[in-house]
């Protein structure tokens, strides 16, 4: 059965069953992932998935159901399961099937150049990344990974109020992790590319990025335990932002899980800090014209010059605080209920270059990498204690590499302590972005 016919029959049956407000959401996804090892294909994975979710208001409760098969039997199953699910809901939160907005922005997140890419060409590029790494260094002992692939997604929603929205997006990514052996010590590096066409993938550029990162770690040692004037490099700050973004989740705030509940309009950070959620960003990995409830998305400041402007809200959480949805109602998959999520979420860049910042700091520490974020960061209290790597700052320049250190602090306090925001914003294969920032002194445990 074609999807259009399935949708019409499902809607007609829903009305016959006495349902007044209901919605169907679909996702049609294809992904290809190729892993290369020693210039041969180690793994080739082509996945196609299609799924439909249905939700309906029954006695002011929202019931959900889903299926991967669209046929006559699935129609009754979706309706009956949604009705049954609604009976088990105990909260009294008001639920919504959205009538839609007057206008939706146009977002360019689909690239025709990525249609019908031949797998052989991707394999050639993957093998070439390994070869280019070997050209850049004769110290390569192994590879921790080498992969290339694409994702194509078409999705949309239609509801009983006449709303019909569809969109599609695609993406090509490539990465390599060479492992160098220098004086019997192993050093790894990471090179990557996010591309809009196969011609944009440059194996030599990716290899140079990875080899440089590995070579920069050569000779790394620990340092004395004490407080250091600390610069958090852009990619390391991105990893922190990813770990703590949920403090801005309006749903968690209303449940008392985020300490920012009820603080909208208050100063919570340094006046140097502005955090943006921008679903309309050009070439953003999470750019989208509408959320999974059908709300038109828009660029918004979460924190502006230190003031908490808004938390992220879907229709339900926005209604509870008498606000407008921020267009942040998203599903984790077609089978999931609507929750709250960010899009292109980033710290706005400043005017200071990274080199200028080092000159200003004079002596201290650059943190380039955090690890252990899943176990060492508490998004409720904001406390973190994380293994880290980086470089010393000596006389205003980047000094020797540093490893085997632990950096401890609190994310809420870190936001307040930001003194300088640099101009070197990066989005490292993610929809989260940040420039490098100077946060004053931090406690560092070394030797």
From TrEMBL:
Boundaries of each Metalloprotease TldD/E central domain copy?
114-216
Q: Where is the Metalloprotease TldD/E N-terminal domain?
A: 23-86
| Any single GO BP term | proteolysis
Any Pfam family? PmbA_TldD_2nd
Q: Which GO terms describe its cellular component?
A: cytosol
Q: Which InterPro entries match?
A: Metalloprtase-TldD/E_C, Metalloprtase-TldD/E_cen_dom, Metalloprtase-TldD/E_N, PmbA, TldD/PmbA_N, TldD/PmbA_sf
Q: Which GO terms describe its molecular function?
A: metallopeptidase activity
Q: Which residues form the Metalloprotease TldD/E C-terminal domain?
A: 225-446
Say which family it is in.
Answer: Belongs to the peptidase U62 family.
**Name of the featured protein:** TldD/PmbA family protein
Query: Source species, please?
Result: Clostridium thermobutyricum
């Amino acid at each position: 059965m074609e999807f259009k016919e399935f949708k019409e029959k499902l809607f007609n049956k829903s009305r016959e069953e006495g349902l007044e407000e209901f919605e169907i959401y679909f996702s049609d996804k294809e992904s290809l992932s190729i892993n290369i090892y020693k210039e041969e294909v180690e793994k080739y994975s082509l996945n196609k998935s299609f799924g439909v979710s249905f939700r309906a208001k029954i006695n002011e409760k929202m019931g959900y159901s889903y299926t991967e098969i669209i046929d006559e039997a699935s129609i009754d199953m979706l309706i009956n399961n949604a009705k049954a699910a609604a009976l088990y809901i105990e909260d009294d939160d008001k639920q919504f099937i959205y009538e839609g907005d007057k206008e939706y922005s146009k977002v360019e997140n689909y690239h025709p150049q990525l249609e019908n890419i031949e797998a052989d060409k991707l394999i050639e590029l993957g093998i070439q990344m390994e070869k280019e790494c070997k050209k850049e260094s004769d110290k390569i002992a192994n590879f921790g990974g080498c992969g290339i692939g694409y994702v194509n997604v078409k999705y949309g929603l239609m509801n009983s109020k006449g709303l019909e929205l569809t969109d599609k997006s695609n993406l090509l990514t490539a990465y390599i992790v060479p492992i160098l052996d220098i004086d019997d010590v192993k050093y790894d590096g990471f090179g990557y590319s996010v591309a809009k066409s196969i011609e944009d993938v440059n194996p030599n550029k990716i290899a140079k990025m990875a080899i440089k990162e590995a070579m920069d770690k050569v000779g790394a040692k620990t340092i004395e335990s004490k407080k250091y004037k600390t610069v958090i490099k852009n990619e390391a700050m991105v990893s922190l932002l990813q770990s703590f973004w949920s403090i801005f989740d309006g749903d968690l705030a209303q449940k008392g899980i985020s300490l920012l509940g009820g603080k909208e309009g208050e100063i919570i950070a340094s006046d140097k800090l502005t955090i943006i959620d921008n679903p309309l960003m050009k070439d953003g990995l999470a750019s989208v014209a509408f959320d999974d409830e059908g709300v038109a998305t828009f660029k918004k400041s979460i924190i502006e010059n230190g003031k908490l402007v808004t938390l992220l809200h879907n229709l339900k959480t926005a209604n509870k605080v008498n606000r407008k949805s921020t267009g942040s109602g998203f599903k984790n998959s077609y089978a999931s209920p609507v929750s709250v999520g960010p899009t292109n979420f980033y710290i706005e860049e400043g005017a200071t270059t990274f080199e200028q910042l080092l000159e200003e700091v004079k002596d201290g520490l650059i943190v380039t990498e955090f690890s252990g974020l899943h176990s060492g960061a508490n998004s409720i209290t904001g406390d973190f204690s994380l293994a880290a790597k980086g470089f010393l700052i000596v006389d205003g320049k980047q000094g020797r590499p540093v490893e085997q250190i632990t950096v401890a602090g609190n994310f809420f306090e870190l936001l307040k302590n930001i003194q300088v925001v640099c101009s070197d914003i990066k989005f490292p294969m993610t929809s989260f972005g940040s420039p490098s920032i100077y946060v004053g002194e931090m406690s560092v445990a070394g030797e």
